[in-house]
C-alpha cells in the first residue's frame, strides 16, 4: 500500500465514488466484516479526528430520545428547552442540530458533551460495524468527508484486489 493513501483523499473519494458503489454492492458481507476491526483500528491510529472534525462541522447526528434525556440532564436543561434551543426536526422526522457546525464543537475541535454525545456520534463513522455494507448510500456519503471511511474502503478494495480477506 502506498504511504500516501490519504494524500488528496477528498478529491480521490469523489472521483472513486462509482468504484466504491460497485465494490460495496458486490462485496461479500462476511469477508468484509472480518476485516473491519483491524482496518478500523489502523485508520484511527493514522487519522486524528481532532485534526478534521468534518462530521461535526458539516453534518448532524440524529438525537434519539435517550440522547436527548441524557444530554439535557447533563446540561441542566428541561428536555423541551434543550430541544427548543439546539434541535430541529429534519425531513426524515429525526431530531438534528439546528445549525452547523454542531453547537457543542469547540474551536479546538473537542466536543463539549463528549461523554454524553449522541449514539450516532459514538458509532461514527461506522467502520467497525455492518452499517458500512447495509447502508451503502451513507457509507458513500461518509467517504467524501470522513478520511477514516475513505481509508477503510480503500483498504478493503486493496485486500479484494490482492485476493485477501
Describe this structure in words.
It contains 11 helices and 2 strands. Helix 6 (65-75) packs across helix 7 (79-86). The model has no long low-confidence stretch (mean pLDDT 94). By secondary structure, the chain is mostly helical. It has a two-stranded antiparallel sheet. The protein folds into 2 domains: 9-49 and 125-161, no CATH class; 62-118, no CATH class. A hairpin with a 5-residue loop joins strand 1 (87-89) and strand 2 (95-97). Helices cover 58% and strands 4% of the residues.
Distance between the termini: 15 Å
- H/E element string? HHHHHHHEEHHHH
How many domains? The number is 2
Instruction: Please state the CA-atom Rg, rounded to the nearest Å.
Output: 17 Å
Percentage of residues in helical conformation: 55-70%
Order of strands across the main sheet = 1-2
Low-confidence stretches: none
Principal-axis shape = elongated
Overall SS class: mainly alpha
The main β sheet shows up as: 2 strands, antiparallel
Number of helices: 11
